[in-house]
Amino acid sequence: MTAPWTADEEPQVYAVERSGDLVHVRQAIRALAQRCGLSLVDQTKMITAASELARNTLTYGGGGTVRAGLVSANSRRGVGAVFEDTGPGIPDVEQAMTDGWTSGGGLGLGLSGAKRLVDDFRLRTAPGEGTAVTIIKWAR
Amino acid sequence: MSDRIPILRIGDILVVSVQFDLEDQTVLNLQEDLADQIVAKSAQGVIIDISALEIVDSFVGRMLATVAAISRVLDARTVVVGMRPAVAITLVELGLSLGGVSTALDLEKGLAKLSRSTSTGPR
Ligand SMILES: Nc1ncnc2c1ncn2[C@@H]1O[C@H](COP(=O)(O)OP(=O)(O)OP(=O)(O)O)[C@@H](O)[C@H]1O
Ligand SMILES: [Mg+2]
User: Fold this and answer.
1) Which residue of B has its CA nearest to A43?
2) Are A113 and B95 spatial neighbours (Cβ–Cβ below 8 Å)?
């Protein structure tokens, strides 16, 4: 899926190719979350979820992009972000979404935790083709 | 090349204040530098001040837990101070409870916590 981007503004694309890029992604999401008027707690949740997903894009996807911008639907506004890579994909999504399951040396909290932190969470993946995770946090 | 965060010493306590959003490598450097300094300075305690941090993700969270575990093995104690309320809420929802990490609300309370734990017991 693609996020319901606001009509008057294109989402920006950020590269996720090295670990320093994660800092830029967090900054970009913070700026959007502030512009959109998310509460401080919701800003923190959205930035943290983005940090987890961007690190997965880098670590497991072999790098990719983040598309981020303001979204709107049914007169609500929010922040949306799509984390996309053309890496190996996730063979067993249910397993990957389980708290504590990791194929590497992680804590296995990134995917499942990010899902809890946002309002909308969608994961699309195909073996050998890549992974795309879309998240949205709506302003209250 | 990557940044290193300065480690200050107050008596036998090491104090680190994280002032900005860190790159992963800087986080790993800090973990190593603290382990080295605990031994080199015979430190009894470590205080990590994260009051300036707007987010703590699982990577930084794991570093805090690892430093706490390393310091225990090296006969020192770590206290994480100044975590923002929004950060605490987010960490719990993320699923990171930081069970083995001792915390205090600010630097002063953190120092008090360490001095209590190092001055009690048989001398
Ligand atoms: N973009 C991706 N491409 C391929 N596999 C992925 C991707 N994202 C996640 N995974 C797989 O899903 C597993 C779970 O991811 P999750 O982020 O929950 O935990 P982790 O990254 O292993 O640890 P943590 O994020 O807690 O440090 C990963 O170990 C990896 O196998
Ligand atoms: Mg992860």
Assistant:
1) B86
2) yes
